[in-house]
Structure of Phage holin family protein:
Amino acid sequence: MFRFLSHLIFLFFSNLVAFLIASYFIAGFSIPLDLKSLSIIAGIFTLLNIFIRPIIKLVLSPIIFLTLGLGIILVNAILLWTVDFCSKDISISSIKALLFATLVISFVNAIIHFSARLSFKKAL
């Protein structure tokens, strides 16, 4: 239970940082920079990643397989669009902004998870 909770908290803060970076660099992708709105957006995205992402990956597994894993970008874009649909605090103005924000958020999360995994292995 503690491992799941710590993973959930880590994923939440990782998404929070990724949303901040994406809103800074991507034109057409905007979020309010107050902590409450940012926390709500990161929380919704974290919960979608934990509960809905496996279902979407299962449904889109043939596409993910045929594109040699690049279909994961489609999964992440669907989740980000769902957050935009669920929250009034986030604004994505175009498909291009959605795609670039998806790429930035995925890249930032990958870097954070990779560096955390390396530091955890060094600690052991």
Remarks:
- Residues 12-123 form one domain.
- The chain has a mean pLDDT of 93.
- Strands lie at 29-30, 91-92.
- The helical segments are 2-25, 35-51, 53-59, 61-66, 71-86, 95-123.
